[in-house]
Amino acid sequence: MRLMAFDLGGTSVKYGTYVKDELIDKGSFITPATLEELMEKMTTVIDKQEKIEGIAISAPGSVNQKDRVIEGISAIPYIHFTPIYDLFEKEFGLPVAIENDANCAGLCEVDRGAAKNGENIVFFVLGTGMGGSVFINRQLHTGSHMYGGEFGMSLNSNGETGSKNGTLVAAAKKYNEQMGTNLDGIQLLDLYDQGQAEAVKTIDQMFNAIAEILYNVQVIIDPDTIVLGGGISNRSSLSEELAVRMDKHLEELDILGAKPKIVNAQYRNDANLYGAVINYKKQIESLL
């Protein structure tokens, strides 16, 4: 099977050709301002390849597979609430499969990455916001309203959302407001590792907020594996830093027997592309 995979992002569109279980000829272009320009750019990329059999797409928003539209909102407004499947299939003359970007990343980790040996898995995306995906018996579970995995909407004990409490972007903003600085998240983590008092306080609050959500997810879904993705997952110590904090919650209620395996994601830049391909195969197989 020879597929063209696209990952639609707010600032850039990544792509690659999937052949013999690998992505080749990878590249990217700046996200166009209109749907027409997007399709034109995608067509140019597709036409440079030979014998493409289908188009696999990772996209932001809630993908309604039944109605074949992308609901919700994102930094690419023109892809939402339009007959996107029909438009793409007409433009490319090929079968198209689309899935939410966090779900695609999760599919990649479950199929070939950090959770390939798991049975019930929760995948967290810790980036500019917080999101993720849920897998029950290794099958993607989006829920009745397609809100499965929207961990950033969950509430911490302080009454604020996970996206507000548990992201490096939010932590850096909080630190800068208090200290009158202009640091990014990576610089803040560097100060944390150096033991700078206010940085330690700010990052500890972030880690504790994430661990609180991990705990709640654990006792509700009871996964055997939790995979941590997003930009901060490049930090090799992240899984241990969060596991220690979550263990304290489990220990307080004497349920350490429910402790999951917490690991960093293996696939990063290409996770959405591989996941889009995995989703394509599942969707096409379901039609056969």
UniProtKB/TrEMBL annotation:
Coiled-coil ranges (or none): none
UniProt keyword terms in alphabetical order: Kinase, Transferase
Pfam families referenced in this protein's UniProt entry, alphabetically: ROK
Keyword Transferase: yes
Keyword Kinase (UniProt): yes
A GO molecular-function annotation: kinase activity
CDD domains: ASKHA_NBD_ROK-like
InterPro entries attached to this UniProt entry: ATPase_NBD, ROK
Similarity comment text for this entry: Belongs to the ROK (NagC/XylR) family.
Name of the protein described by the UniProt record: Sugar kinase of the NBD/HSP70 family, may contain an N-terminal HTH domain
